[in-house]
Specification:
Layout lengths: L15 H19 L16 H4 L3 E14 L15 E13 L2 E17 L10 E21 L12 E29 L2 E4 L13 E29 L4 E12 L9 E13 L3 H64 L7 E5 L9 H13 L5 E5 L7 H21 L7 E6 L13 E6 L2
Parallel strand pairs: 11-12
Antiparallel strand pairs: 1-2, 1-9, 2-3, 3-4, 4-5, 5-6, 5-7, 7-8, 8-9, 10-13, 11-13
Length: 449
């Protein structure tokens, strides 16, 4: 293997198509980011094509295809065709979306990189001389990856059909190829000795020399297997519930190169994804069946409430009717009583007594009110008054106490309209009746018939 480099390596992204692909990917990223605007989430809405519905515990498969580049390949391009600067790449994978912001999956990708050497000037100083070389390497990438949806940084965004996934993981590359070369050489045989003919070699006419020209082709096989770490940016747009299209850029860093494997593998791919989700008609039917069931339950609950309220209203109406009947009956009885009372003369209470406190000749407010009521009921009648005192105390003092009590009662009756002539006899007996407790501290009033 000739590892000498007479020219700098061609940068992996120097081609026109590489620059166009990067511009398109960058423009799409900016456009999608501009769509991430918050919206009002108020009110119950029918199911829509949104991440919470399409990307929560769902499976999907996808196919991808595009172009690939390899960087820092030991075999250099010399005057190569333009088509050798990029190579086709195809593959596919399967993903499981755990939540709208994270998914895991497995992927397979096939591609190749090529190099070509076409010499416009041959170096004939040494033999054999290489006149053409072609290097072809096919590789198969298999990886396990995880992706994070950058658009979910906006919790309520309008463009839920657009998503930007940033991915990484670990992969393994299986690569196998060959180097094809064409070489020419000229040799001279003189005296049984064969030597190559190069610059500065002269052949005399007086010598017997055999000149031989050779054309030789070689085909050297080469392979390597190594781990790599991928990093990808994937822009996706939902064109329907089940189909998603996208643009994907990926760079793979190869490990343990051993002077054979390139440093990076770079991809620009278009993807088509199929999502294993229910059709919109099924989702809408399930949603509206649930809504109808909830409405029916609500109607049944309202009907039960109406029946309960109607029964309560009927009970209240019956109670009100009974109360009105009872009120009418009580009113009738009251009217009858009032009529009978008006027809019959007022009854006269035959007697009344005024209670006094111990060793006191003053009436309490309550006793004064009772006396006023009694006086109004017996107005026009003649009254007899007897004043007493209880046994404790001296006889003379108790006699005077009973006289003061009698005078208080007479004074109150006079204020109520009685003539003193109608208040006879008036007797103060002191402790004559020998009553020791409260029943001896009173003035008894009797109505004369």
């Amino acid at each position: 293997m000739n590892k000498r480099r007479t020219k700098p390596l061609i940068p992996p992204l120097s081609g026109r198509w590489a620059r166009v692909g990067l511009c398109v990917l960058f423009s799409a990223t900016v456009t999608v980011g501009a769509q991430a605007q918050a919206t009002d989430g108020g009110g119950t809405q029918p199911p829509r094509d949104q991440n919470s519905e399409l990307r929560t515990r769902t499976w999907s498969v996808y196919a991808q295809g595009g172009l690939s580049w390899a960087s820092d390949v030991w075999y250099q391009n010399l005057d190569a065709k333009r088509s050798y600067k990029q190579s086709p790449a195809v593959g596919g994978g399967i993903d499981f979306t755990i939540r709208p912001w994270v998914r895991v999956g497995a992927e397979y990708l096939w591609s190749r990189y090529r190099r070509e050497q076409r010499f416009s000037t041959l170096d004939t100083k040494t033999m054999p001389v290489k006149v053409y070389g072609n290097y072809l390497k096919n590789y198969h990438n298999a990886k396990l990856g995880v992706g994070f949806n950058l658009m979910e940084l906006w919790p309520r965004r309008r463009a839920q059909w657009l998503n930007i996934w940033l991915g990484t993981g670990v992969g393994y590359t299986f690569a196998k190829g060959n180097e094809y070369g064409i070489y020419i050489s000229n040799t001279q045989t003189q005296g049984g000795q064969t030597t190559p003919i190069g610059d500065g070699t002269t052949i005399g006419n007086d010598s017997e020399i055999t000149v031989t020209g050779n054309v030789r082709t070689t085909n050297r096989h080469e392979k390597f297997n190594t781990l790599y770490v991928p990093a990808s940016l994937h822009i996706e747009a939902d064109v329907s519930r089940r189909f998603t299209v996208g643009l994907k850029g990926e760079a793979d860093w190869l490990m343990n190169r051993k002077d054979i494997a390139p440093k990076n593998l770079i991809f620009a791919l278009a993807t088509v994804r199929y999502n294993f989700v229910a059709s919109r008609a099924k989702v809408q039917r399930a949603y509206y069946e649930g809504e109808l069931s909830a409405l029916n339950d609500r109607i049944n609950a309202l009907q039960r409430d109406v029946a309960t309220e109607k029964a309560r209203a009927e009970r209240e109406a019956a109670d009100r009717q009974r109360a009105e009947q009872q009120q009418a009956e009580l009113q009738r009885r009251l009217t009858d009583c009032e009529e009978r009372q008006a027809e019959s003369p007022a009854t006269v209470q035959p007697s009344h007594f005024v209670q006094f406190a111990h060793n006191s000749s003053y009436m309490s407010r309550e006793e004064a009110e009772h006396l006023k009521a009694f006086a109004r009921s017996v107005r026009g009648h003649r009254l007899t008054l007897v004043a007493e005192a209880s046994t404790p105390g001296a006889d003379g003092y108790n006699q005077q106490l009973s006289e003061r009590r009698l005078a208080r009662v007479v004074e109150a009756l006079v204020r109520e309209g009685f003539d003193k002539a109608d208040l006879h006899p008036q007797t103060a007996i002191g402790e004559r009746n020998g009553k020791p407790a409260a029943e001896g501290r009173r003035v008894t009033i009797k109505v004369e018939k």
